[in-house]
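call fold(seq) -> tokens
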Amino acid sequence: MPDRRTTLAWLAASATLPPQMLWAADVVHDSIPPFKAGGTGASVAAGWMHQLLPKVDRPNRFALVEDEGKAVLQVQSDKSASSYLALVSIDPAKTPFLHWRWKVSRALDGSDITAKAGDDFAARVYVLFDLPLDELSFGDRLKIRAARALTSGEIPTAALCYVWGKAQPVGFTGWNAYTDRLRMIVVDSGSSQAGKWRSATRNVAEDFRAAFNLAAPPVRGIAIGSDTDNTGESVETRFGDLSFSAQR
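ret:
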């Protein structure tokens, strides 16, 4: 498997962005799947896939659990990193508002958007876009094409990442420490709200335009998780179902 921070261009630079994205028509959903499959079983719905990472020996542990009478996805991260991914086809011009709930046991002490060593977060929500290659610089086009050739599939060309951070305050935005194709946005920060469910709503169309100075292209994937492989810390995080809507 190629080195995640050298060969796979900007995509591989981010420690928790899924290393390979396949926009296969038979697995793409027109809305974000709920975590719980139909029936009474305890398995996560088939619309979600566990994405492991090259060069990361310890993946997170994911489980479907009940919290306040609702099925939620639990992530246990202990010096580890991996994500759960759902492939979607969402038009942000029609349904720009992304809604979710999350709860963390603590904020990570070493979390810092501006430092590569601090590229760990108690919670992340990725929104992955399929920006046409002709919108990219010549250098970025070459990198993306090389990455797609190596992975034998499609990968996102731009992404937003909403995080529960520590060093930066709520509302802070900045480029990922490894790449300017991934815009980081702090939605919650610190441990004052740890152990509590927090609801969030973001206009991904506005956030994309603010980050890339372009109209938002189709959303092709949603990925969630926690990562503690850089800082060596541990955290338990829970996510409620995510959804898009036309109005806030």
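Residues 53 and 82 are 6 Å apart (CA to CA).
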